[in-house]
Design a protein that fits this description.
- The protein has a domain of 156 residues: Leucine Aminopeptidase, subunit E, domain 1 (3-Layer(aba) Sandwich).
- 47% of the residues lie in helices and 8% in strands.
- Strand 5, helix 4 and strand 6 form a beta-alpha-beta unit.
- The two termini are 14 Å apart.
């Protein structure tokens, strides 16, 4: 995946480049900065940092990564938040932009960021997240690189705005505890167990009725031998004969109707190889993520999405919070997988690419 958000300690993330929220002077403080120095080796890293000298807000400098699971540490100085009118936004944008460009110059294939300037520098987390997302997306439209945004715990960032609130309202209004364990790893709920108990009781009631009827029977009744079934029942034959288009057939019908080409459909989330495989196999059965990602790429509404993924045997279930988040995003005309993954993360759900 070209972009992902993970909950981890950035010093334990494996990437070609690790971004450090550096002190402008050749010293280090608390938070991410201090953690990186400790994990990399304070003495060796400080010796390299002193060679660089002062770093201005928004600028970057590079040192070896020493003991980290990386080749480089890209040091960038975030802005101290005042009120948003003193160049803070522009400087934070430059932190991400310059770090990504430096990683590209170094021929890095992967880079990991913390949420820059949201600690002691006080940059509002929701604004910082919007800036990070915007700059990373702009870069990935032009370049290929795996970008990871690392947060330490669920409270490390906050989402705001009408989209997240609309999705939250939709999830709250429609979420039902999981009827059974599903692909998101949810355990069986009390609702699920009550359904099972009711079905078991119904079965017992049926058995009791059969026993009772057997007891009052005075003589055996001979039942005629059933005729040997030699043909498929007409109703089943009719259903099979009237079967609708496959997932592959319906997908390419939509693509043709919209006059789209392959490159307009596949992207970093649906590879050209996967797209070609679907194209050549009428009976191709996608995993759930691939089916949903194609719907998002085509900007299908909820009804169209349910119809298309249903042809592959999938659904967006009201008993799955992750499914409801995806459905809520589509209802709010949000088809960007990166943004949907951020919202899934906010709800404590796995990202789309982990749905198989």
């Amino acid at each position: 995946m070209p972009f992902q958000i993970v909950r981890n300690d950035i010093t334990k993330v494996k990437a070609d480049a690790i971004v450090n929220t550096a002190n402008p002077e050749p010293t280090y403080g608390a938070g991410v900065d201090g953690a990186i120095y400790k994990a990399a080796g304070r003495a060796k890293l400080m010796a390299e940092r002193k060679k660089i000298g002062k770093i201005a807000p928004g600028e970057v400098a590079v040192t070896p990564a020493f003991n980290l699971q990386a080749k480089y540490i890209i040091h960038t100085v975030g802005p101290v938040w005042t009120d948003g009118t003193h160049g803070e936004i522009e400087n934070l944008e430059r932190c991400y932009r310059n770090s990504l460009e430096k990683a590209r110059e170094l021929k890095c294939r992967s880079i990991a960021f913390p949420l820059i300037a949201t600690g002691s520098y006080g940059f509002p987390k929701d604004k910082a997240l919007e800036i990070a997302l915007s700059e990373i997306q702009s870069f990935l439209l032009q370049h290929s690189m795996k970008v990871t945004l690392v947060v330490f715990d669920p409270k490390s960032f906050e989402l705001s705005g009408s989209l997240i609130e609309n999705v939250r309202e939709y999830v709250d209004a429609n979420y039902v505890e999981s009827v059974s364990a599903d692909e998101y790893g949810a355990s069986r709920s009390s609702y699920s167990r009550s359904i099972e108990r009711r079905r078991a009781q119904e079965l017992l009631d049926m058995q009791e009725n059969v026993i009772f009827l057997g007891e009052i029977e005075t003589s055996p009744v001979r039942k005629p031998k059933p005729k040997k079934q030699t043909t498929v029942p007409p109703s089943i034959s009719a259903l099979v004969a009237g079967s609708d288009k496959t997932f592959q057939e319906k997908l390419f019908e939509i693509i043709d109707e919209r006059g789209l080409t392959g490159p307009q459909v596949y992207n970093d989330y649906i590879s050209k190889q996967v797209y070609s495989k679907i194209q050549s196999d009428k009976d191709y059965h996608p995993n759930k993520y691939t089916a949903i990602a194609l719907c998002l790429s085509l900007h299908l509404d909820v009804e169209q999405t349910m119809d298309l993924i249903g042809r592959a045997g999938w659904t967006l279930s009201p008993s799955s919070k992750a499914d409801l988040v995806v459905k809520g995003c589509i209802l709010n005309h949000e088809f960007n997988i990166v943004k949907i993954n951020i919202i899934l993360f906010e709800f404590g759900c796995p990202e789309l690419q982990k749905i198989k």
